[in-house]
Amino acid sequence: MRKTKWGLCLILLVLVLGLVTVLAACGDNKDTTTTTAQAPTETTAQAPTETTAPVSSEPTTPVPTETLRIGAILSLSDWYSVVDAADKVDLEYVAQMINDDGGIQVQGKNYKIELVIEDGKSSLDGNTAAATKLVLDEKLSFVVGPGAFFNLATTPIFEQNKVLHVANYNGLNPAEMNKDTTYAFLGLDPITQANAELKSLMLYYPDVKTVCLATEDATYPAFEPHFNALVERLGLTLSGPPVLFATNAEDYNPVASKIKAQNPDAVWMPVAIDPSYFGITKGLRTLGYEGPLSFPIDAPSVTGALGDVATGIVGVLSKQIIDPNISAPMKRLLEMGDPDRHVFGLGPNALYILAHAIQAADSLDPTEVRDHWETMTSIPTLYGEGFPSGSQLFGLASHAWAHPIPVALVDNGQVEYKPWIIPDVTP
Amino acid sequence: MINVVLLGVVYILMGVGFAFILNLLGIFNLAHGAIFVSAAYGCYLMVVKLGLPGFVAFPLTVLAAAAFGVLVERFLFRPMKADFNRTIMVCIALSTILVTTFNRFMGTRALSIPPFIAGTTGIGPYKVETDRILAFCIGIVILVAIILFVDRSRWGARMQAVTQNREGAALQGIRFGQIAAIAVAVGFGLAAIGGVFMGTLYNLTPFVGDVTLIKVLMLVILAGLGSFNGIFYVGALLGVLYGALPVVLNGAVVDALASIMVLALLIIRPRGFFGHE
Q1: What are the strands of the beta sheet with A384-388, ordered from one edge?
Q2: What is the pLDDT of residue A46?
Q3: Which end of chain B has the lower number of beta carbons within 10 A, N or C?
Q4: Of all helices (H) and strands (E), which one includes residue A410?
């Protein structure tokens, strides 16, 4: 009897704590973010606030009568799902946004987008399987994704089968995209993002002359010559050898110590993940380093995880509805769901530009779309008007695209949104 | 230095918890990383969403994890009768369910449990977060308490008896079910302590437990299966490896070095540093 009582008590304790936890998890998280939107005071970059025309440009919104199936590869399980599970939500919202506007108009017909999403399982073989399924089983002609270095696994399959594929982002490995991968397009040239980080750092901290390059080690070999060229082009100097780190580290204090030892004017972290950025920032501030830091941010995440330690940060790519400079399509996307969610906006942007490219080409043939896209000099993106970049870098003209980049300054846990930066075109 | 010893303490806490379950139940608890991360999220929710002070949320989290351990032992581990294949599948399933739940409900943002005591402590330019010192002290106290529990308490003696000879212990009237429940409760509780420390001092994502689990597996294999004391020495060694070597080497090189150590040791001394035949 006594044992039963104890057992019941234990079960009750676990159930109560579990229930409380789940209820708390279901609540909003406004109390975890402390953001302050202020009116921009600089006018160095024009904010892309004009309303982008819907993909279908009929005066009255037509109802799509046909369906266009577009594939998408996202890693919905394992470690990269941290990015791609969020991207999936926004990818579906973008498809809905385009469909609500009448879909994609081709040859006088309006096509509703139907997404066929495959899980890349955060691995190269998982991405290979996903690409094979989309191409051979689903027989699709257009695919968005994958992101990061997973394109290594998918590009050969798409190219061999002449499937037009728009990578969300890539790791600059030539096997992902090169002069021979003529069906490969890229939603964001990663060097333009790095360029925006340094340009905004120099804009808001003009005294910065030396920067410490701290970045994750797996992708660094491919990025190294481009980062060095970028630093040189902008007239900066590296304070020492790059500080490389693994993104699966638990403790980033040793990395922070190495950075501080170089005594740089500023710290530049172009490629890593949030735990790395936050760990290094925390470590540097604890060690007493007071220089500015530049890296891609999601403003509520930075302030939520670091609190007051989040100071002297020049962050790019934070997409928040309270940003007065937010582009019209991005604002619309944010309004479609919980506006406080973490929007990575990589895959969704790839779909957005693909839809515009198909409509501009007025064809559903991937080769015709490719040929027309290569002649385009601008394209609407979720971030405003996009422009081609990296023709030398990738050996392909008008295949890699760039767009205005959101900028935010974070000081003492408070966020100030600044005019978006137009990055320089990568040679 | 404090980074090295703190990481060492966290690894030892995790390793001891893992060893409790392995030595007594013969279960390779691959859900250990998921328990670690679940506890960290649980504490985060109690502090941030419910507004509980960290000092209240911390013991509540550990108690909840221990209670969950009792339930897992009774309803998931015990029916499998220590069959290796079945228990491995149970652990993988448990881990997947927990990690997916937190990934789904907590979103993709990297989180951090607010510090129990904000600020830094130090002499001159040498500063350390006060929370690190606190975590180190709590960790040491808990490890001493665990040693005393195993070496000096009646329950500890019974656990050692079961580890050495389960049938003999049963003949002496020791009830295996009770011992197993305590072992899993202690194991999960220690994982929870490690999780809260990590969630406070570092960052919290749904998959952070996977990384830690690999280190715990390394620790237990290097120490030698069945060795309890070895975990303390090897935990300290891993603390040095992962806490100090990144100052002179790049992160991934440190991982590779640790993996080479495990491989070399398995070839030269398959039973680990302190394992028995």
Answers
A1: A379-381, A384-388, A401-402
A2: 43
A3: C
A4: strand A405-411
pLDDT in tens, A36-93: 333 333 334 444 444 444 565 555 677 777 899 999 999 988 778 878 888 999 999 9
Residue from B102, B123, B203 to probe the interface with A (highest A Cβ count within 10 Å): B203
- CA of B135 to nearest chain A CA: how many angstroms apart? 14
pLDDT at A209 over 90: yes
Distance CA B163, CA B166 (A): 6
Of A392, A354, A403, the residue nearest A192 (C-alpha): A403
pLDDT for position B1? 66
Low-confidence ranges of chain B (pLDDT < 50): none
For residue B121 the two structure tokens come to: 């402590």
The domain ranges of chain B are 2-117+128-205
What pLDDT digit, counting tens, does each position of B41-85 carry?
A: 999 999 999 999 999 999 999 999 999 999 999 999 988 877 888
Question: Taking the model in full, what pTM does it have?
Answer: 0.80
Complex ipTM value: 0.76
Sequence letter at residue A363: S
Q: Where are the domains of chain A?
A: 66-189+326-404, 191-323+408-421
Alpha helices (runs of H) in A161-189, residue ranges in sequence order: none
CATH architecture of structural domain A191-323+408-421? 3-Layer(aba) Sandwich (3.40)
Contacts of B175 (CB under 8 A, 6+ apart): none
Distance linking the first and last C-alpha atoms of chain A: 78
Task: Check whether A15 has a pLDDT greater than 80.
Answer: no
Q: Which of B105, B198, B251 sits opposite A217 (nearest CB)?
A: B251
Pick the CATH number of A66-189+326-404 from 3.40.50.720, 3.40.50.2300, 3.40.50.150, 3.20.20.210: 3.40.50.2300
CATH topology match: A66-189+326-404 vs A191-323+408-421: yes
Local structure of A104: helix, strand or coil: strand
Please judge whether B202 and A298 are an interchain contact, meaning their C-beta atoms are less than 8 angstroms apart: no
Q: What percent of chain A has pLDDT over 90?
A: 66
Q: In a 10 Å sphere around its CB, with 0-12 CB exposed, 13-18 middle and 19+ buried, how is residue B141 labelled?
A: exposed
- Most B CBs within 10 A among A14, A21, A74, A76, hence the mutation to make, goes to A21
- CB burial of A349-372 (b: ≥16 within 10 Å; e: otherwise) equals bbbbbbbbbbbbbebbebeebbeb
